[in-house]
Structure formats: C-alpha cells, structure tokens
Amino acid sequence: MTLCMTLFLSASFANAQAQPDGERSLGDIAKEFREQRRVTVRTADPSGTTAVAATVPDDYFDAEETDQEVESYLEKIARMLANQDYDSLEAEANEVRSTKARFPGGDWRLYSFYDAVKAPSGRVNASDNQWHIRIEALRRWVAQKPESPTARIALASAYLLYAWKGRSEAADYLVTDLQWQTFHERSELARKTFEEAATLPTQCPYWYAMMVNLAKAQGWSRERTRKLVEESYARYPDFHHTYNQYAYYLQKKWFGNQGDEPAFADDISARLGGREGEFVYFEIASYAGCGKCSGKDHELDAFSWLRLKSGYAAMQHMYGNSTLKLNRFAVMAFRFHDEAVGKPILQRIGSQWDQRAWSSEKEFDLARRWAAAD
To answer: Nearest-CA neighbor of 315 among 255, 257, 238?
Structure first.
C-alpha cells in the first residue's frame, strides 16, 4: 500500500471516530462485536497431531495498524540505497536475516527489505529512466560489496521485475516479438546474477523465493522447480514466502493442474506441523487467492475453510495481525459465505479496505453490503 493510501485510510478512520453518536465509529463497532460475539474454530495443538476446539480470544478481529510501520521501514531502506549507504544496507539485511524478524501478520522483514531495494517507486509501472537509475545503484552496491549475497540478489530481483515490465501485462498473444525478446534478455540477466549469488559463502532464504519466481518466468519444469522448494524447506523451513511463490507457480494459468495448489498446501503444512503449519496453510491460500491476480485459476474452494480459520488463529497467536491479513481473511469469509465470521470482520474493517487483498473495489462493496444485510 502506498504512503498516500495509508494516509487516506488513516484520515478515513479519524473521520469515522469523529462521527456523532448516532453513527457508530469503527472502534465502537469492533468493541460491540468483541462483547457480543465469541467465535469457535478448530486449532492445531502444539504437536500438530490433533485438532482441538478453541474459543478465539477477544482480539480475534483486531488488526494492529501496521501499514505505517511497514511504509516507514520501506522508506528507511530505500533512503539508504538512495544515499549509497551500502554499509547500513548490509548491516540491516544481516540483522533481519539472522534474527528472522517479522512484521505483525507473520511476513519477514527480510522480504520487505528486498521489496524496498529491488524496484523504484511504481515498480513495473515506473519509467525506463527510473529503472535505469535503480539498477545502476544496485550495480554500484555489487561493485563495492562483491562478497555480498544481498547486493547480487537485489540486483537479480530487479532484473527479473524489469523483465516483466519489458514484456507488458498484455495476454501472451498480444505480446510483440520485440517485447518477448526484451523479456527473455532481462530474465537471463536475472538468472545469471542469481547464480553468481549462489556461489558466495553466505546464503539467503530470499534467493529461493525469487528463484521460484524466475522458474515461472522462464517456464522451468515442475521437477526442477520443486527441487528448489525442497532445498528451501531443508535450509529455511519457516521462510513461508518461498511456499507462496511455488503455490502461485502451481496455478492452472502457469504450470499446475487441477488440485495441485491445495495439495501442496496440505503437504507442506503437514510437514511443518503445529501452529506454523496451520499458518502456512492459511498464508498460501490467502497470498495466491486474493488481490487482482486471483480468479478462476486459484482453487480457494478446494481449501478447507475450517483449516483456514485455524491458520488465521495460529497467525494471531504467533505473530499478531495486520490490516492486510485482516482484509485477506475477510475476502475468504465472504467467498466461503461464512456470515458468523465474515460480517463482524467486515464491520471491523469499515472503510479500511486494502486493494492488495480484494480483486476489485466492486467485490469489496458487494462484501460490505452482504455484511450489512440482516
């Protein structure tokens, strides 16, 4: 979410709180639902061997206002790069990688670190000049820190995202020969730079997530791509972002078949076990099934709604919550037609809809009307 959007949502929330007594604020609504409704879901026990009934705690519907925290972090890292403060970038990356620090909602800070450096503002919609400036800054980082895996992975990730810009977002049959050529040239630059990073003494879990992304771009075989996922699981089992990328690779519009995506979620969550496994099950479904990229190729209805609720509760217990994850859970509740869960969450969200979670504003409006109905 952009800083402008964050400020807009903050203003909307402030306005809601300032409404007269006849129009309840979002805080009043949330308080009312916490007092009047307690939801029961099934959660995994710590051993991961059985599922037990559990009453969801009072903060089940609460989401910490973390968007500004994430935005501030992204701005801090981007500022380091703009100032060519490569020592500080290295120190920060090493810190968040070694401590496995996460934002509320469970996303690794390391993932946001790379998001901040790999693309200019606007990402694929940025101008070619903005992209050239960003890539040159990353090349200087590599030149100054030749033994840094972080610098090379950031540069390779930039090449890969820049490749998608060169291809355009059009359907395959509308992409020109020149655009395909640009796409392949830039994705090859990404592959070579990722391979260089793999030869360095220090390794990074983000490398695997982006290699799966590269596999999707270059059409790698299922066997070759799954090998990356297994290596990631062996080295960094709790880096769930790699599983998210692979689940997206398994969608029917890419390289999967009917049932592959939920089957993978079942497999990896069972292997992880316990609350972490349940969280990853929820994370895979919510990442691949929400936002503008979701649609008929995502098999959300093949996931277990009971387990998705359990995974959301596990996330709350281990990592807290965020506005984004609350919105994703609301999307799921709406699509599974669970009024007991979905209506109070949508009341809690109010106007704070997150465009990263919903397929469109139209879908969000439909969900709000559904939540408001008797």
So the answer is: 238
